[in-house]
Amino acid sequence: MAFTIFTDSGANITDKVRDHYDIRIISLTLVMDGEEFQFTSSEGFDYEDYYGKLKDGLKVSTSQINPNQFMEAFEPVLEKGDDILYIGLSGGITGTINSAKIAASDLMEDFPDRRIVVVDSLGASLGEGILVVEAAECRESGMTLEETADKIEFQKYCMYQVFVVDDLKHLKRTGRISGALASLGTMMDIKPILKGNTEGKIVVECKARGRKQAIRALAEKYRDLVADAEEQTVGISYGGKREDAVHLANLISKIAQPKKIWLVAHEPTTGSHVGPGMLGLYFRGTDDVRAF
């Protein structure tokens, strides 16, 4: 049975990747100066200007995808006769995945012959997006919906996601970290290295003094934890400092050259939480790497 793959704009995949793999994207909402923005496309947005304005104090807010939005997106696909796999932004940082589950439950009552499988990626940006692409490749290889979902459920625990930010105030403001943790970033230029844990929540992995050491710390995590680098796509996302992303890509290439490296500007909605200067690294390690 054919199935359609959905994700949300938090997955940070490019238009080229979206179109090549026939992935459907439902957008999170970003509000700037009272105006709502949707991001189903990676093109046509000035990321450098956006992150510059965030640094200067631009006030923004975000909202998760609600059940009605999921139902509006899913229903035409079910009517056509396809099943659905939705891989979504971590439930540890947003309630969007719960909205998807509510919509799926309601719709499967209306379409009892159809299947909707919802997978919490436990990630964001390319920590989510790489899993979505892996799912699309599973579909291309002839795997069923259930086989694909089972593989992604396993792979999500292998996906290591580590990042550094210039200022923890954005994560504090939106409730993604505690005030006590945010205070670390104000002490003697200490840069906490953050990661997604086994529940998809943001926790401190280690600390570095200054940005240069923080970037080296990201590369060292790759050295210590990457598995089968030559067989995987590694992701790097950045909030307005592309030169740091390029530098990190060079560092990890010298350690263990991956099959591909994707460099993307960090998408604006979750980007409002991590703030300007964010630099994230996403790669596959062992099956318990999130616990390290």
Structural key phrases:
25% strand, single chain, four-stranded parallel β-sheet, alpha/beta, 292 residues, globular, Rossmann fold, Hypothetical Protein Tm841, Chain: A,domain 3
Structure description:
This protein has 292 residues and is α/β, with parallel strands linked by helices. It folds into two domains: 3-28 and 64-155, Dihydroxyacetone kinase, domain 1 (Rossmann fold), CATH 3.40.50; 159-291, Hypothetical Protein Tm841, Chain: A,domain 3 (2-Layer Sandwich). It contains eleven helices and 13 strands. It has helices spanning 15-21, 47-55, 67-80, 96-110, 126-140, 145-155, 169-173, 179-182, 211-225, 242-255, 268-274, and strands at residues 3-8, 23-26, 29-32, 35-38, 60-63, 83-88, 116-120, 159-164, 190-196, 202-209, 233-238, 260-265, 279-284. The strands form three sheets. A six-stranded mixed β-sheet has the order 10-9-8-13-11-12, with helices on both faces. Strands 2-1-6-7 form a four-stranded parallel β-sheet, with helices on both faces. β11 (233-238), α10 and β12 form a beta-alpha-beta unit.
